[in-house]
């Protein structure tokens, strides 16, 4: 599962109220980039040069305070972060003073080559420095391609006897793809992504049985697996295999057909994928 990493490295600032006096202080950004470009020592070890940081106006709009969470503040300003660190400091009257205060205590943060963007907010003698790496959008192949990947992975798993928790399953016959089940799965993945909530119950209270019927599948037996956060079809199937209940669905010899679909949520955490797999036996 993909997670954005957030860390506040110095919680020493009071709540920032009102407008900031300075945003993305060019002098401080230049001093930090000059320091990153020059080799030196950090914590008793040699520090390699790191690429320059780019001033990002979104990071300069954040407002952190007591009890605030970096991920929420970044979401508020529209910056999707894979990783971020926040340094608070107070007392310095200019950029040189800030650099003197943070150069050694936070050298590992400042020198981290993973960060590419920076934002600086100043309120009087209180300074907030935000270093971040953007979350790149996740792209997956077309639904039919991903559906085939899931079908192939499931059939490979069914071909081998295995235990699903405490239940033993013999190898089972391969499943066939069914478009109606695929449509039901895709609709539910889209519903989960829109709500940013993983559940078997739909936003309208529907069950998998209702959704399969809506999609035109006349069923005698129906089942469903859902998952969220796995960035690929293979990881979604692996997660189902590792979960006893999902594994039991996947290995159930009574099922003859399946469909699957995914949707990527771009609302809060771009690249967060919701997965649905529907199993069935037609009447």
Automatic annotation (TrEMBL):
Q: Would the keyword Signal be found if you checked this record's keyword annotation? A: yes
Which domain of life does the protein's organism represent?
A: Bacteria
Q: Which Gene3D superfamilies does UniProt cross-reference here? A: CAP
Q: Which Pfam families match?
A: CAP
InterPro entries of this UniProt entry? CAP_dom (IPR014044), CAP_sf (IPR035940)
> Know the name of this protein?
CAP domain-containing protein
Q: Which UniProt keywords apply?
A: Signal
Q: Which organism is the protein's source?
A: Massilia litorea
SUPFAM superfamilies this protein is in? PR-1-like
Signal peptide range: 1-22
């Amino acid at each position: 599962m993909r997670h954005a990493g957030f860390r506040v490295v110095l919680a020493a600032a009071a709540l920032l109220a009102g407008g900031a006096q300075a945003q993305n202080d060019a002098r401080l950004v230049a001093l930090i980039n000059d320091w990153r470009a020059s080799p030196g020592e950090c914590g008793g070890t040699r520090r390699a040069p790191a690429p320059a940081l780019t001033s990002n106006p979104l990071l300069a709009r954040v407002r952190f305070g007591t009890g605030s969470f970096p991920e929420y503040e970044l979401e508020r300003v529209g910056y999707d972060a894979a990783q971020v660190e926040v340094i608070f400091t107070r007392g310095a009257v200019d950029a040189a003073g800030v650099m003197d205060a943070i150069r050694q205590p936070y050298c590992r943060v400042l020198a981290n080559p993973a960060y590419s963007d920076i934002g600086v907010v100043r309120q009087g003698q209180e300074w907030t420095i935000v270093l971040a790496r953007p979350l790149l959008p996740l792209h997956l192949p077309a639904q039919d391609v991903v559906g085939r990947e899931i079908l192939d992975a499931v059939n490979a798993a069914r071909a081998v006897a295995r235990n699903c928790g405490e239940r033993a399953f013999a190898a089972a016959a391969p499943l066939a793809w069914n478009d109606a089940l695929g449509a039901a799965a895709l609709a539910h993945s889209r519903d989960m992504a829109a709500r940013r909530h993983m559940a078997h119950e739909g936003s309208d209270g529907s069950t998998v049985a209702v959704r399969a019927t809506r999609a035109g599948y006349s069923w005698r037996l129906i089942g469903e697996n859902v998952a969220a956060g796995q960035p690929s079809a293979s990881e979604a199937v692996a997660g189902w295999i590792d979960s006893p209940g999902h594994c039991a669905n996947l290995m159930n010899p009574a099922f003859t057909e399946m469909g699957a679909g995914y949707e990527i949520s771009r609302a809060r955490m771009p690249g967060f994928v919701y997965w649905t797999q529907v199993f069935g036996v037609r009447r």
